[in-house]
């Protein structure tokens, strides 16, 4: 059994991306290998956008790369019903700049609960529930107010441009969580006597988070 506290978690916002690299094919494997002419290296973080709906708009770490292939760590595409053969075409964008989000007070995920469709059959007394995907996911962030810190301008810019941007959380034990979504930001701070002034930011996720144990 392992118990963890979030104290020491570091957050960062992706602010600069390299030019998109076209993906022409992908393997069905425990860790997919994409065909793409690139200059990527192991350890890079990339946003995948493409016709594999279970993977699009998510951020992955590069496990290995050559001049013509990229292995995405942890992206299991062995199921051809979820990842149709020949359906990997799309693009990769390397994240080149992360801006630390300092003074985070809280970061609360919500949504992602399974949804069910209720079915009533005439010859069955009990209703039947069938799985029907998951609810939309969001992040709600509370950040101690300081408009002079770099993340303030970065969050404001991403929100005003309605940009999809990645957020990276590095937990104290080394685990990493990658989120990707539309950024929102309210730079008007809360003002409660005896409490730290705080601004609010959020992310409307466009794909499920990706987590690495180290």
TrEMBL record:
Keywords: Signal. Residues 1-25 form the signal peptide. This is Phage tail protein.
């Amino acid at each position: 059994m392992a118990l963890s506290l979030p104290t020491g978690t570091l957050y960062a916002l992706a602010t600069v991306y390299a030019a998109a690299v076209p993906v022409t094919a992908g393997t069905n494997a425990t860790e997919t290998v994409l065909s793409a002419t690139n200059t990527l290296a192991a350890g890079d973080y990339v946003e995948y956008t493409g016709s594999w709906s279970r993977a699009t708009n998510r951020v992955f770490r590069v496990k290995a790369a050559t001049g013509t292939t990229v292995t995405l760590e942890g992206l299991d595409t062995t199921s051809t019903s979820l990842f149709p053969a020949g359906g990997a075409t799309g693009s990769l964008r390397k994240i080149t700049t992360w801006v630390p989000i300092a003074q985070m007070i809280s970061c609360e995920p919500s949504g992602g609960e399974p949804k069910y469709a209720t079915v009533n059959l005439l010859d069955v007394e009990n209703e039947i529930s069938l799985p029907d995907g998951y609810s939309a996911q969001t992040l709600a962030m509370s950040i101690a107010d300081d408009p002079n810190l770099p993340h303030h301008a970065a969050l404001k810019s991403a929100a005003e441009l309605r940009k999809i941007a990645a957020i990276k959380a590095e937990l104290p034990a080394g685990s990493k969580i990658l989120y990707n979504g539309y950024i929102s930001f309210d730079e008007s701070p809360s003002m409660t006597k005896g409490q730290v002034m705080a601004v609010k930011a959020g992310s409307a996720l466009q794909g499920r988070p990706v987590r690495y144990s180290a």
